[in-house]
Amino acid sequence: MSRYVVAKVGEIAAGQRKFVTAGGRAIGVFNVNGEYFALLNRCPHQGAQLCSGMLTAMIESSGPGEYTLDAQRQMLRCPWHGWEFDIRTGQSWCDPSRLRVKTYPVSVETGGELVKGPYVAETYRVTVEDDYIVVET
Amino acid sequence: MSVHSVVEAGREAKSPDRARHGVVDCDVHPAPALPSELAPFLSERWRKHIQNYGIRLAGQPTTAMVPYPRMAPGNGMRMDSWPPNGGFPASDLDFMRQQLLDACNIEFGILQPLTGGSTTTNLELGAAICQATNEWQLEKWTRRDQRLKAAICVPQEDPETAVALIDRYAANRDFAHIAIPTRTMEPFGRKRYWPIFEAAERHDLPICMHAPAFGYHCNTPTGWVSYYIEEHVAFANPPQTVITSLIFEGVLERFPRLKIVLVEGGFAWAPPLAWRMDNHWSRMRDEVPQVKRPPSQYLRQNFWFTTQPIEEPERPAELLDTIRWMGAGRLMFSTDYPHWDFDDPARTFNYGLSEKDREAIFRGNAISLFRLHGE
What we know:
heterodimer; A: 3-stranded antiparallel β-sheet; B: TIM Barrel; 8-stranded parallel β-sheet; 12 helices
């Protein structure tokens, strides 16, 4: 398991995303209302760049004429065939038992913490004063 | 645990090897960057007419070009297909090369333009739009990339003009087929269309019948459905009427070398349709004495189907049974680029097909049907 510094806090505004490569994997890092999420940028269906898809609120219906929209639950919709995945879990909406897109833990850490260890970031400039978004793969 | 730095992601690495040979894509939708792009190919008379009266398409519940809006922006486009230099998806040849022709190893792409001439209620205007679309395909697409093959667009409700257009373009091998929608004004086997069949057979040109999204009638026999999801499912309905009408009207006895390609209407429904037809024919053949053989025989001889949107049963083996019944020779791969339900050739049919069937579906059938390697 490795940890990758992918961005400085503030670099990905709320509602925005950043595409990175970490450990050879193409990953999309999302800021959803201040919470960070990271998913593999590859749809398990036909391989489209999933993380360039639209984020939409979860909409459910208990019966005809009734619906609820849950803005807290964000679904990532593939730009090709519209398959939806829960941004928190990577679970597929249309085939939850069999399909899931890989998600990665994301944390925010201070530059001070990051520069302490023996494995200092090599090319991403980390300074003690700033906070960073770190993805674990 | 180590902390690594990262580099910005470029485009994702290319998928592993696709087919060893190039793929033939039987459903590519070229678009004008702007509607005005067709204007130079229209006469002043029709330019003025469109400016003053617009274009009225038949059988539409609204005057919008697409009766069921979907997947905004752009009504059903792959979200990553908008050309970086502007314009509509599939309106920029360089970007189409990059995203489709080169990326998916497409040896030939069969164009299926959706400019609406064949369903324009004003037949003369429809003919002018068909003619303009034919010239536009040559100018903008086939002359600039030999992988692309054009459609002879025709106003099928005016068969005389349709035949004149077929005769005008048939000798030009930049054109690979004749394009006609599945929802024609009358069932397609009716006699009014026979001159078109005579011309198609004479020039050995397949007729490609694209199921969505235009036509002279509602998308279902009982009317316009409520949702786009129903419209999408209904793409499978009109091709069934095309097949039954052509068979029972005796068209395939009169024009035995006619080649009909059903584009984007699915195919898994074809075997049970044939079983129903054969069953009824065995009891009621005296009603249609012109039908000399079991209907399934015509289905397997005169019809082809493109794959996208492919039916995806839970157990893929069930689809293989369907293909086995029809014969792999009936199926031809298609992507439907740049539409949202695009199929990537590297990731479609990734199960159970023999190498021989795979080669036939992804390439061989289309090369021989459209005569893509010459006579």
